[in-house]
């Protein structure tokens, strides 16, 4: 398994990982070194020091103490060691091991006490949050010492861990703020590029910001956008002039034919002129793509209902429209362009098939329009060719049977201008399946 499969998918997540992983490793190594070195050394030193003080007190304490000697030793222990000493005569301790605490300070204390004391002893480190109780068995009684827990357990370890975690959190918050500020212009640039790919207007708040490289990418994107718009505008202007220049002689020819005597030859010429006008309109529609109209929120379901009702009136074949229960919101479309594209696809289906079916469903953040027919279909090796302009899969040059070869090309051009996708597949009905995918 490659490393990239474990990395976050967003640039924000990856930058955060670059910050967090070294920080975590540094903190982990620091804490381990602290516990291996400082914690071990300090704990053992405290245990040794406390055990030596207890041993000194035991050496001064007589085996059969009187009340006077007990009082003297208690004053000595309180004055020099801050111990509270209690002696209970004629008593026995119940255990000589630390059994209630498995911490490292208890382990170190037990080792040092066992190595220095000759009397049986026991200790309780957890009975009180601030006090350690040590019981030492004398021949005639039990000596009990109450010792502050700070004498054995160092608070610097918790303080060190607290400061380590706090400083890491502060650094993480600062890094998070800076990463968000660095990622924001990249995210805005990605949104602007997606909007351009979908044929929509750029966000109102788009502006050049961020690091030098991001600004350079933003300037390159804006230059590309301006070039694309200029190219489309120049193409539209040129085609408008071509349209005027071609229509004028055709109109003169039609007027001249109208003044001539009706003959079979004149009728044929009139039909040719009509076909030329239709072809010119088709070519201009393909080149223009009606991409100048801004997209507006539209209901794709209602649009398909209208197209289906219109085609059912003019085509006797069976055409059905099926919606799933998925809720499809209104999303930006050039309704007239999408209507033209879907109509072209459906007219192709109805021209060659007896039955056609439209299914519409939502798939994540896209709308899938699936059109199936029971016609002859298109061979897989010719499907890419079928979408190219002026490519007629029918061998004849008859406009009524083969068309101009622009129906699917116009549809594909319009769908691509919306940031969508058109695919030709095999249909379970035996004909062609057309997938139209539009982003919401």
CATH topology of the domain at 3-154: Beta-Lactamase
What oligomeric state best describes the polypeptide chains here?
single chain
Distance between the termini: 34 Å
The percent of residues in helical segments reads: 55-70%
Number of strands: 11
Rg calculated over all Cα atoms = 45 Å
Number of helices: 11
Structural class comes to alpha+beta
Order of helices and strands: HHEHEEEHHHEHEEHEEHHHEE
CATH architecture term of the domain at 3-154: 2-Layer Sandwich
Descriptive terms for the model:
five-stranded mixed sheet, 56% helix, 440 residues, Heat Shock Protein 90, alpha+beta, 11 helices
Write a structural description.
The strands form three sheets. Strands 6-8-9-11-10 form a five-stranded mixed beta sheet. A four-stranded antiparallel beta sheet has the order 1-4-3-2. Residues 395-402 have low confidence and may be disordered. The chain is 56% helix and 16% strand. Among the domains are: 3-154, Beta-Lactamase; 293-439, Heat Shock Protein 90 (2-Layer Sandwich). The chain contains eleven helices and eleven strands. A hairpin with a 5-residue loop joins β10 and β11 (432-439). It is an alpha+beta fold and 440 residues long. The radius of gyration is 45 Å and the shape is rod-shaped. α5 (212-259) packs antiparallel against α6. The longest helix is centred in the N-terminal third of the chain and has 50 residues, at 11-60. The protein has helices at residues 11-60, 67-80, 104-116, 156-197, 212-259, 264-288, 300-314, 335-352, 383-387, 399-402, 407-417, and strands at 84-89, 121-124, 131-138, 141-148, 296-298, 318-323, 331-333, 355-363, 366-373, 421-426, 432-439.
